[in-house]
Task: structure prediction
Amino acid sequence: MGDERKGWAGPDGLQVVAVRLTGAHRAWADRAGVQGETAFLVTRRGALVGYYPTVEQLAEVVDLAQLDMD
Result:
């Protein structure tokens, strides 16, 4: 099985994916001060925007109404 992550796409290359915070994701989330076992990973055109542990925190930086399911 390949990497079959599903997530949401937004304008201007925005991507949002729910990820388990293990391996490299754990290391990057730790650097950002994000705790927990899962988070929303946000990228724009492949560049890291950030990790957000809750929908509420995600909504502070992303207009959720503009997201479409991948």
Remarks:
- The chain has a mean pLDDT of 93.
- The CA atoms of residues 18 and 28 lie 14 Å apart.
- Strands lie at 7-9, 14-20, 38-44, 47-52, 68-69.
